[in-house]
UniProtKB/TrEMBL annotation:
Keywords associated with the record: Oxidoreductase
A Pfam match: adh_short
Molecular-function GO term, any one: oxidoreductase activity, acting on the CH-OH group of donors, NAD or NADP as acceptor
Transmembrane segments: none
Homology family: Belongs to the short-chain dehydrogenases/reductases (SDR) family.
Name of this chain's protein: Serine 3-dehydrogenase
Amino acid sequence: MEERQKVAVVTGASSGIGSETVRALVGAGYVVYGGARRMDRLNELSSETGMIPRLLDVTISDSVKRFVETLPDTVDLLVNNAGGALGLDPISEMDEEAWLSMYQSNAMGTVRMVQSIFSRLKHSGQGHVVNIGSVAAIETYVGGAGYTMAKHALRALTETLRIEWLGMPIRITEIDPGLVETEFSLVRFKGDATRAKGVYAGMTPLTAKDVADAVLWAVTRPPHVNVDSILLRPLDQARVDRIHRRGG
Ligand SMILES: NC(=O)c1ccc[n+]([C@@H]2O[C@H](COP(=O)([O-])OP(=O)(O)OC[C@H]3O[C@@H](n4cnc5c(N)ncnc54)[C@H](OP(=O)(O)O)[C@@H]3O)[C@@H](O)[C@H]2O)c1
């Protein structure tokens, strides 16, 4: 009998780590459904890779529902990558709207996706959920609380799923990268390209492909092996806020 082609879903596929993860998974033979809010970007990636592009805003329940309705009955892999940071405000100057939005995309968005795709993952008999966390899921830094609180919540979610799903054929992995040069800082600083560039000044950050490689490694282990988490940082970063910069 011909082997069924595996199905993967990647959220936040329109940029950075999500786009590279799509490339890696298509290269490994998956049929990939990629979701995000910017359809033009998804369509470009679709032309390049064959990914199936779908509109998705993980902060809106109806959008998640509509996205999931278009998926096949079986999904083998869900990569929860959609998210990011907004601003760098200390707690005393919290921007409530921005902080709630970070919780909505990074934490609640992942819960919505997991809840909606759960039956399809179970149906596959060898499901796998990969959450893109961050060093911000483990460490804290000045001005980072809005983001670190959301990513710490994501880590709690990952760990809870591992207990709740014990005995089920669904693996659960968290990938926690340090600094990766993507559009992350551009979004964080509301399009201020100079400030965004400064985040990576004088150091060598990870690339989106470095993170996609880690995702691919985790999902291609034998089915009885659960990679709980991978923490990967640039050599130039010892802690979330301890970075070695050269020159300048
Ligand atoms: N770059 C880093 O240094 C770094 C480090 C650790 C962890 N991470 C995490 O890695 C993930 C990917 O970030 P990135 O570095 O690749 O940044 P990026 O280039 O800004 O990509 C973020 C992606 O998330 C999508 N997204 C954001 N909000 C969304 C929403 N409400 N619904 C659906 N999609 C949404 C964006 O698509 P649309 O705008 O088109 O919707 C985009 O595709 C994030 O979870 C981030 O927190 C990044």
